[in-house]
Amino acid sequence: MLLSVNIDHTATLREARKGNEPDPVMSATLAILGGADGITLHLREDRRHVNDRDLALLREIVRCELNLEMASTEEMLQIALKTNPDLITIVPEKRLELTTEGGMDLSFKRDYLCDFVKKLKNKGLVVSVFINPVIEDLNIAKEIGFDMVEFHTGFYADSRGKEQEQALINIIKAVEEAGKIGMLANAGHGLNYFNVSRIASIPGIRGLYIGHSIISRAVLIGIEKAVRDMKSLIKFS
Ligand code: PXP
Q1: For 129-184, what is each residue's pLDDT tens digit?
Q2: Where are the domains of the chain?
Q3: Cβ of 154 below 6 Å from ligand 1
Q4: For 5-47, what is each residue's pLDDT tens digit?
């Protein structure tokens, strides 16, 4: 099973000061050294974290799977056609949301999406879509022409007890169905060091797309060394 590391939140930290650090591109190279099979970034319309410069540099240096998450807008279509990411994941995007809140509603704009996906595939690009683990949505994704899907694991991650068990069953069934209809299935959103195992043990999942928990852990496990480095500079100045 692949692990693609989403480096958006390194850029969130950079944008807190609108400066140069920490650089999400460096984060990507270190993630790859750590064993990441892919790097994901979500280029948002408002560029609130990663930006066009990050995408261009990542395209130059990432030799494993570079996954561009994007809204199905004309601007993003042109960027994707120009950049040639290894994978494009179409996501819903709302300006005021803190993070992607749910899977795509595929019944809405179906003809538009068929045309959109065709333009990307005509250039040889591989296209996925972020959907809820619902069989009907999976079937529509297949009809539209997506190559693969990413099932939204956010509800599983955020729920507890019986609700969480049901959410897990829904993901297992959706992955099984994807296998039957010949669609590759990925999963992601809200996965962390406590809840990932049950998703990682579902047979048939191609890859997991994880961001926030990895960057959060990196901040914590790096603090001790970062402070030691600063102390030694102060001591020897
Ligand atoms: N997959 C998709 C489609 C997403 O939009 C996101 C969040 O940007 C993720 C995975 C990663 O979610 P998280 O940051 O919660 O791990």
Answers
A1: 999 999 999 999 999 999 999 999 999 999 999 999 999 999 999 999 999 999 99
A2: 2-235
A3: no
A4: 999 999 999 999 999 999 999 999 999 999 999 999 999 999 9
From 2, 10, 40, the mutation candidate for ligand 1 (largest count of ligand atoms within 8 A of CB) is 40
69 lines ligand 1 (CB under 6 A): yes
Give yes or no for residue 108 having a pLDDT over 90. Answer: no
* CATH code, residues 2-235: 3.20.20.70
Alpha-carbon torsion (159, 161, 167, 168), positive or negative:
positive
